Amino acid sequence: MLQSFSILKKSVVSCRRSTESYVFYLHYRVTFLLLMFACLLISSRQFAGDKIQCLASHYGDVSASLLNAYCWAASTYSVSSAYFKEAGIEIPHPGVGNSEDESEYTFRNYYQYVHLVLFFQALLFYLPHLIWKTTDHDYMNKFYEAIKVGNNKEEKTNESPFDEASRFIEERWGTHLTYGSLYIACEVLSTVNLIIQSYLMDVFLNGEFLGLGYYYVSHYYATRLQDPIRLFPLVTNCYFQKYGASGFVDSIDSLCVLPINALNAKIFLFIWLWFSVLLGLSLCSLLHFFLAWLLPWYRVSLLKLKTIIFRSKVDHRFYVRAVMNGNFGDWFVITCIKNNMDSLEFSRLMESLCSKLSNLESEAKEP
């Protein structure tokens, strides 16, 4: 934000631009990087490691590599009733068994597309930031051009940089509501994207993603369920059919090990936990901006509370006067500037701004 105010460049703290809240930052930067890291991790295991290993009682003329390729490309299956039998006694592994009821068979081949899903999810989380960055860049360019033109026309005066900057803010006072509204729209878009992504992930994982944390916790209290998350079985079944020597169809029932699911289970459990925390933070952030929009006193209450807790010696009375005198858009712009400036320098800027706003009100009252 403060890049537009080139005359105050030395007062800007060298950190990331704070025109966005930290919750918005968690959406487009932290979540994006986490999903991209998970995508690369899955891809490295899928294309460079052993993604599946299948064992059959008889291969015949079917090679092990062919069987592995088919079971990976087609699908493997688990039997739901086999999860409630004693592993090692009644069944060889959790979910591995036979059943005459076809409704108990659960076929899965999602593991082929996990890296693609994570990649596109990461891009969608970054999209609201691209929208806001375009809006913010265009809007701030207008500020910069106005400042540049104004400086070229005016002769040099003895005004301090804070007087010059406060004049530019005062000239546009009351016109920032659209700018603030667009930012809230981007935050709402991020939250809606998070909710939609969660439901799409649930569809992708056959309706088992939203309850993933519950499934993981509940397995500790189960007496029969040995696999912590049935969604990511480590051992499954696979059917391979071919023509036998007699010309009839010969079926090969193989046992397949999916090492990649050990990684999938941990990644998706972390994603479920991160999405849950991020959703809670996003709703709190939207509530914060909603209250700031409706209640002028709320815009300064957090600053007063922070001043009491951290015992700030900076005089914020001019900031309070400016915020109470403007609308939500003015508060949003001032807050963005405040987050990018030293506290003492910002206090001087607000003192100059309040002086100019007082003069503006006096001129408006004169007949």
TrEMBL record:
Primary subcellular site in the record, as a coarse category: other
Source organism, top-level taxon: Eukaryota
Transmembrane segments: 21-43, 110-132, 267-295
GO MF, any single term: gap junction channel activity
Subcellular location(s) per record: Cell junction, Gap junction; Cell membrane
Gene Ontology CC: gap junction; plasma membrane
InterPro entries tied to this protein: Innexin (IPR000990)
Record keywords, A-Z: Cell junction, Cell membrane, Gap junction, Ion channel, Ion transport, Membrane, Transmembrane, Transmembrane helix, Transport
Bilayer topology: Multi-pass membrane protein
Any single GO BP term: monoatomic ion transmembrane transport
Short name of any one Pfam family annotated for the protein: Innexin
Family in the record: Belongs to the pannexin family.
Protein task: Structural component of the gap junctions.
Descriptive protein name: Innexin
Gene designation per UniProt: shakB
